[in-house]
Amino acid sequence: MSINTQSVIDRHLYFLKSFSEAKRAIYEADLSLFSLKQDWKRIYGNSFTGVHHFISETYLPSLLEVVDQKQTDIRVPKDFLLPSSIFLTLNSNITFGSLISWQVRSFFYALSLVFKNFYIILLLSFLRNRNLEGKTIIYGVKEVDLEDNSSVFNFRYFLNSMNFKKGETIHENDLFPYKSSSQTKRSDAESSLQLPARVCFFLKSFYLLSKGCLGLLFGNKLTIVIASKLIKAEYLLTICKDKRPKNVIYPIHSGFFIAPEIAILKKINVNLIAFEFSQSYFWSSLKPPNDSPALYSFYSMEENKNANSRWPPTLLPSEIWAYDEFSKKSFQTFLNAKDNIKIKLVGSINISDSPELSVPKNQADIAIFGIQDLKGPYENFYANSDVLKKFYEDINETLKEKNIVSFVKAAKAVEKLKSSKVDLKKFDKFLLINNIAPRRLINEVNLVICFPFTSPAFIAKNLNKSVIFYDPIGIVDDTLDFARDIPLIHGKDNLSIYIDKVIHV
Fold first, then answer.
1. Which domain holds residue 466?
2. 3-state secondary structure (DSSP) of residue 265
3. What b/e sequence results for 354-384 when a residue is b if at least 16 CB atoms lie within 10 Å of its CB, and e otherwise?
4. How many CA atoms lie within 13 A of 477 on its CB side?
């Protein structure tokens, strides 16, 4: 398969440009929330900048789709509730018909949120709750990932290693019992709000929802979204008033770190711990990088570009669990020394694993880790389906020449791979593996090959396995620090030579 490398570079730079422009538009937007502005400031310590972070985390993917200039007939998603001026300034191709259609659909979507939130307020006013006193609340993982099983490497395994035992932790869904899928029988762990507290919560929440409705009547649909987040925060404040949790643990690569329900827990002195479970937020720089736009991460934009993009102290956790020294240094660039944030190095963190699945023994010498197909505007990124397909094709052809079989960690369940542009099932030297923690797969092989710069590579390095990043088209900069001295191999010929060094056929 032949690929026009210049086209890949151009598309990659186009994506980065679109990303930075879209994010800047959000941070520079005048996001009036009417009277809800004061309620937001009450949680965030008189700071309004958290709104821009929240909006960026919530709407940036949708905005990128809207501002994709290659589209001619743009249909704005109904759940995109930002002012139309944001995407109109970024994309002149939006037709009047598309604009009217979006206005109508988004209004009725916002209206549905009104009724949904009123229903939730009623539920929360009567449901029994978990006793949170001294507990640790876990955000950002599935309930199944907190099940205790000594044979798997899931998030419970990691928490146990950090001395957070099962009886001391509560999943986020248990804060809102109507969301929980847990079959665990509730007994003495339950507590019920006293009638005055229930009435107080209902009145405060209904008041917030009324403010959101008022904003909607004046054309600001975003107020409904903000109101729903503030209602959840109010509920947590109510149930934690007398029986306060000890810790909250959540992934830092997510919108949780700016959510009002997290900020309110910090406000009442709950210890916040943000953990790093992925290295994929380090975007690869292509050669030559001279005219590349600034590589913004989700943490902030460049300090000099927009003051609102810096982390305000109200959004900062008490502690960060980072992978290694390099990760620690990257976080420190977004923190002020006076913030006094503790950064603990914990290595790689496993999230999901399946106890009922096992890795076939002695069937493969190599483990391959790619990525999931990127959709929408993200297809312009370096890691697009064409590059990903060549990544797998080069490896499979090389293995065929050497008669070597490899494990391939599928990003999706095998039965769902039909929707993927990259058909992994057609490669005859691949044994597809799904729903197994990378660590277990890596333990069974001698060599690990990763798409730049996926996290399993660092797990392999930590386990002292031979590991490489493979760039099939030779345009990823091999001087990047975040590769952590893991070799970056360019092109099929160099890949073949490296495999010969490690695998003795």
1. 366-502
2. helix
3. eeeeebeeeebbbbbbbbebbeebebbbbbb
4. 15
* Per-residue DSSP letter, 172: G
Which residue in the block uniquely carries the two structure tokens 């944030």? 341
Question: Which residue in this structure is represented by tokens 């990659």?
Answer: 12
Per-residue pLDDT tens, the chain, 505 aa: give them: 677 888 888 887 777 777 777 877 887 777 777 788 888 888 877 666 677 777 877 888 778 877 765 555 677 888 888 887 777 777 767 778 888 888 899 999 999 999 999 999 988 888 777 778 889 999 988 888 898 887 788 899 999 999 998 888 989 888 876 665 554 444 444 556 778 888 999 999 999 999 999 988 888 888 999 999 999 999 988 888 778 899 999 988 766 777 888 888 888 889 999 998 776 655 545 554 444 433 334 444 444 455 555 566 667 888 999 988 888 887 777 676 666 788 999 988 888 888 777 888 878 889 999 887 667 777 777 778 888 889 999 999 999 999 888 988 876 544 444 446 777 878 888 888 888 888 889 998 999 999 888 889 989 998 999 999 999 988 887 766 777 889 999 989 999 999 998 886 5
Asked, for residue 82, whether it belongs to a domain, the answer is yes
CA 404, CA 495: separation in Å to the nearest integer?
14
Which of 243, 268, 286 corresponds to the end of one domain? 243
Place of tokens 């099932």: 425
Q: What is the domain-level CATH number for residue 446? A: 3.40.50.2000
Together in a domain, 235 and 373: no
Contact in structure between 449 and 431 (CB atoms under 8 Å):
no
Whether 134 is covered by a domain: the verdict is no
The two tokens of residue 57 are: 């985390």
In the three-class reduction of DSSP (H, G, I as helix; E, B as strand; rest coil), residue 376 is classed as helix
Question: How far is the C-alpha of 465 from the C-alpha of 188, rounded, in Å?
Answer: 47
The residue to which tokens 């009145």 are assigned: 203
The phi and psi torsions of 448 (rounded to 5 degrees) equal: -120, 130
DSSP letter (8 states) at residue 190: E
Q: Which SS3 state, helix, strand or coil, does residue 291 take?
A: coil
Nearest residue to 372 via CA among 360, 363, 364, 384: 384
For residue 351, is it within any domain?
A: no
Residue 412 contacts residue 434 (beta carbons within 8 Å):
yes
Q: What is the DSSP letter of 252?
A: S
Classify burial at 113, counting beta carbons within 10 Å of its beta carbon; exposed 0-12, middle 13-18, buried 19 or more: buried
The verdict on residue 262 lying in a domain is no
**Whole-Å CA distances, 59 to 55, 78, 86, 88, 288:** 6, 12, 11, 15, 31
Q: How many angstroms separate the CA atoms of 500 and 505, rounded?
A: 8
Domain count, the chain: 2
